[in-house]
Amino acid sequence: MSRIFITGSTDGLGLAAARTLISEGHDVVLHARSRERATTLAEISPSALGIVIGDLASAAETRSIAEQVNAIGRMDAIIHNAGIYLERSRGETSEGHAKTLAVNTLAPYLLTAWITRPHRLIYLTSGMHRSGTGALDDIDWKKRPWGASQAYSESKLYIATLSAAVARHWPDVFSNAVDPGWVPTKMGGAGAPDDLEMGHLTQTWLAKSDAGAAKVSGGYWYHRQQREAAAEVSDTGFQHALMEKLAELTGVQLFGARG
Q: Which listed residue (156, 158, 208, 222) is catalytic?
């Protein structure tokens, strides 16, 4: 059985993934933004390996999340599921970053750097990543008028690119990006047309399956099928530029100066 950490596991895809993995006998570490949010996990928390608490919009709390996970022990897999969608405003964090960027991109980047390296990493992206621009000069939305949809699309382009960069730099880790589709969660809305079950079963499959098809790296997945991601994702020049930008914003270098 595998030991798996899932960010944002109090509802939606994260909760569905946690329930599935726990029912299969895996040791799952849950995550909630606050102690209040953690109370919603009362149904499954007795069967979980543990619960970590922290707000991914805060770099300090993200650091605490990593420390809590490391204290439990090395994970076999980490599913970077947590994310926010259409924020009404830039919503500056305590570190001065746009909230969408902080939660959707900076937090997974920092957790990747700070949590003991697992065997498998799964990053949730979106088909909307194809609408993200390749320019990185205003990644933190300090110059442009705020655009919620564009900010989300860009954050999902960055997370898919991070996944590909990890796959390239860490050959001992299976790193993949998953597009769960437009599924009927709180984020996606009740009228979303995609299959909620297939939305979470792809990441759980990549996190624990011993099938050869699941033990690959650098893929962009949709409903257990590999798809073509935006060209920037596999562009090593764009990967390097993005990693340098994320290191600049966070003060944390993931791969070294040539990342």
A: 156
